[in-house]
Amino acid sequence: MAAKASPARTVAKAETGLTGLDQVLYGGVPRDRNTLLVGGPGSGKTLIGMEFLLRGARDFGEPGICMSFEETPEQLAGNVFSLGYDLNSLIRAGKLLVDYVYIERKEIEETGEYDLEGLFIRLEHAINRIKARRVLLDTIEVLFSGLGNEAILRAELRRLFRWLSNHGLTAMVTAESGQGALTRYGLEEYVADCVLLLDHRVNGQVSTRRLRVLKYRGSAHGTDEYPFLIDKKGISVFPITSLGLTHQARTERISSGIAGLDQMLGREGFFRGSSILVTGTAGTGKSSFAAFFADSACARGERALYFAFEESPSQILRNMRSVGLNLERWIKRGLLRIHAVRPTSNGLEGHLAAMHNLITDYKPAIVLIDPITNLISVGNVGAVKAMLTRLIDFLKLEGITAMFTNLTLQGELEQTAIGISSLMDTWILLRDADMGEARRRVIYVLKSRGMAHSNRMVGFEISERGITLHTDGPALQQRTSA
Amino acid sequence: MNKGTNRRSMQASGAGRRKPLGWQLRLYVAGTTPKSVAAFANLKKICETHMGGKYRIEIIDLLRNPQLASGDQIVAVPTLVRRLPHPVKKIIGDLSNTERVLVGLDLKPAPLSRAASQA
């Protein structure tokens, strides 16, 4: 018993291909079985189901049938076009087929016994035509309003779902959420191998879509509510924890772009793929640190992506010229991209989507977010932290080094406004110190995981020659980070 | 109904004379089952009684011609489709309730209670 327990209980899975979803499902939906997608109107059921088919057809060599009870093929093509898919070309290539089923109760009279063999025949015909492996039924509940005999309907649905499994088809079935029950017509009674719950909430005028795996027979799965986005790249589910635990910790070091700071960081700089927080009061030079970091990456021939939430690109370029940085040349050579956007122009979900897409497109080696403080104006503390967690997990997985700047108020030196420091590998503090009459800038590495770093407060200057750290003062005291 | 019926037309005596006034009916079935046999028998009886010979029944077996199911939007079988006169009407089931078939074919007005419930 013990010997065969684990392989026998492993459920065969079909990758959905949807970004993040397969991680949440520990590999995919159950193969040759039915997965129920439950959600209210506009929760994204159809789009998730369609992307499951589109990805299957395009990326996994598994042709798919969409039996659509609500939307016509033209409407579906229009909808998935906004996700970056060309439905019609897949249809022409014989990899996908849409059968639009139209039922209008007013046009149908019922008398006596019948069954739904017509539906089975249509499905089988479509499956045979393109040798389909995947099926989407969206949403078969329409039959309940279209046909009068619920007893026949229920018996036939039970037969249908079993039939799909017996024919080696991996199916997704959409269903409207019900009141007091999971779905309006109790489809969970028949489709129960895997149930995904979708939700679309508006909180403080910011909308977030969420997905939860309600059950997955015979398989472990992520249990949280995972935010997901629908944008021109398709669906992206953001597993908050699962990604973060799997990324590869890197040992390669990269320069911060400032010699003195590298020296403070165990003489070698940051770890590649780590996340760095630079906090400081107003005017301490946070953006300059970010810019020098970007400059050094570009000088190595790496790409840097700079998200500016406060200043326009031209303002950043002008300011950086004053500290001796010529960033324009990197922009001209395609090594630096500055993406300036007002935080309030978008909900957090929108920002995450935009960042995610730009990063995926541009494939930078480093990312700068200057400052994250401004994002707080968009969402509440918990939401901002959750968003940053997702972003950092994503960046780590991609091996991208990220620097975040954060404005702190005088007197709250070690308190980051949104409690995000735990997400960061390295935390650098900048502040003004009163040195008698003069105001002097000091830098301090509060933490830097996995390396011996300086624990000194070091004075520094920002001039047209750049950032100079006065590390040549009294001997450096070294300490190992906890 | 014969086994092996592919797409068979049954033309009643007077149907050819005045086509515009004739009834064109299609009965969709899936193989020869008790339901499809009953539906055809019930339909024929109703046609003989109420259509005065001016009708034509076409039987479509979806097991042989599955590609024809989507055209008339067939989901249930048996389904009777009244193609002419317009508008197109559909009646599903074995057609055992003559009253309802007549209502469905517009040969009889819908009962008041039913009309009200549909409004």
Your description of this structure?
The complex is a heterodimer of chains A (482) and B (119). With 482 residues, chain A is an alpha/beta fold. Chain A contains 15 helices and 25 strands. Chain A has two domains: 2-239, P-loop containing nucleotide triphosphate hydrolases (Rossmann fold); 246-480, Rossmann fold, CATH 3.40.50.300. In chain A, the strands form five sheets. In chain A, strands 5-4-7-8-3-9-10-11-12 form a nine-stranded mixed beta sheet, sandwiched between helices. A nine-stranded mixed beta sheet of chain A has the order 17-16-18-19-15-20-21-23-24, sandwiched between helices. In chain A, a hairpin with a 2-residue loop joins strand 23 (457-463) and strand 24. In chain A, helix 14 (348-362) runs parallel beside helix 15. Mean pLDDT of chain B is 81; it is low at 1-20 and 115-119. Chain B has a five-stranded mixed beta sheet with strand order 1-3-2-4-5, covered by helices on one side. Chain B has three helices and five strands. With 119 residues, chain B is α+β, with helices and mostly antiparallel strands. The interface between A and B is medium-sized, with 26 and 34 residues. Strand 6 (108-110) of chain A pairs parallel with strand 5 (89-92) of chain B, so a sheet runs across the interface.
Short structural description:
The complex is a heterodimer of chains A (482) and B (119). Chain A has 482 residues and is of the alpha/beta class.
Features:
heterodimer, A: 482 residues, alpha/beta, Rossmann fold, 2 domains, 9-stranded mixed β-sheet, 15 helices, 31% helix, disordered N terminus, disordered C terminus, B: 119 residues, alpha+beta, Glutaredoxin, 26% helix, 24% strand
Q: How many discrete structural domains of chain B?
A: 1
Label the overall shape of chain A.
elongated
Question: Which oligomerization state do the chains in this entry correspond to?
Answer: heterodimer
Number of helical segments with 4 or more residues of chain B: 3
The H-level CATH homologous superfamily of chain B, spelled out, is Glutaredoxin
The CATH level-2 architecture of chain B is identified as 3-Layer(aba) Sandwich
Q: How helix-rich are the residues of chain B, as a percent range?
A: 25-40%
Helical run tally of chain A:
15
- The first-to-last residue Cα distance of chain A is 46 Å
N→C terminal distance of chain B:
38 Å
Please state the average pLDDT score of chain A. Answer: 86
Largest interface: A-B, 26 and 34 residues
Please indicate the count of domains of chain A. Answer: 2
